[in-house]
Structure prediction request, 409 residues.
Amino acid sequence: MGYIFDDWKDLLDEFQKCVDKDLAEIQKQKAEVQQIKEGLYNSLGDGLFYHDGNRVVISAPEIVIGNVDRTGTLQGGGIGKVIIRGCEVDIEGVGSMGSVVSRAPIIRQVAVDPGIDGKENVVCDTSQIVSQACDIVLHSSNATDVFSQDPGLAGRGGVTIHADTKLNLEASVSADKRKEDIEARVSDLGDKSSDLKTKMKDQKKTVDDLFDQMATLLDNEDEYNQSTDFKLRTNVEDVIETQDQIEALQPVIYNAVKTYLSLVSQLAEVNRQKTALEAEKDAITTGDDFKNNTTGATLNLNAESINIATIDGEGNLHTNDEAGIIVKTPRMGIGMTDDSGKLVEGSSFGVAAENISLATQNVSDDGTEFPTVGEVYIGSKNITLEAVEGTDGRRQHTDESQNGGSVNQ
Prediction:
């Protein structure tokens, strides 16, 4: 029986070599080493394992799953871990008042393939997160200890997004920043890879030593079993002690192998991510090739009525110097035209402010001169310009324009 450990050593050695292989080879090796974990776990005889090839149904008015006592209270010093792993996982709250509630200090949703052991983070072409409802509310608060506000409903067919401090909507592709981020991640992954290699090497030595210890104990047990009856009776204490040592060593070996397999899986995933990120970095277009070509990123705001205002949560209009709307773009157009390009009858564009500036001034490289460039064009049948002094004075002069229209000043 001791010879099986030699086979396991070979499997673990092959598994260790896969840390620099592609994803398909890594997953193949993972499937092969599962027999070691299964064999070790079966030898323990501890815990409860039930498997049915068809269907398992657990039914009760209330079901609590976790490291809890009979009252359903988490025990063990607040330590508990629940893993649900499957190709299809459905959570359904049935009925018009059915609900699904998730509560935790940290809740993350990442659309990746975790692999059969949960150690992978593979981005697939099918990666997607879809949320559909009649009423959707996203509320970010800077509250402490307890949320002081209950997010108001958006109403049927509505979506409300609120942030106490900052709300960013971005549709953008970066180049230099993205490259810097990737380089930082690759550097971090490189450090993790070195650390995991050291731990894996040490853990492999521990596993090999434990395998050798178990093989020695099993050889001793075989010798006792093959002894004569008289010799066996004289060594009964040695037989019992050997069996006790074997039973005590089994969980140690299992935990050691489990830790080793986890380290190999982590290292393989770190190396896979490092390789993928380096390839992504090499494919990034930077410099003029990035700046002078479209990235294809777009942001669309479509509605029958759109309101933009610098107001606070109480509805107060803020007029301080920091309040304002800034648009920064090389080109901006506002069109009151229909689908055929014709002006919408009765359309209008109005600007009202205490101070209005229109300028085509540029700035020199050293920032000391502001030469005027370009041109300003205003085309209309009638143009009226008014300069009003005080509350009862108006200077008005009318010149007929050459095209039959008029300019009123």
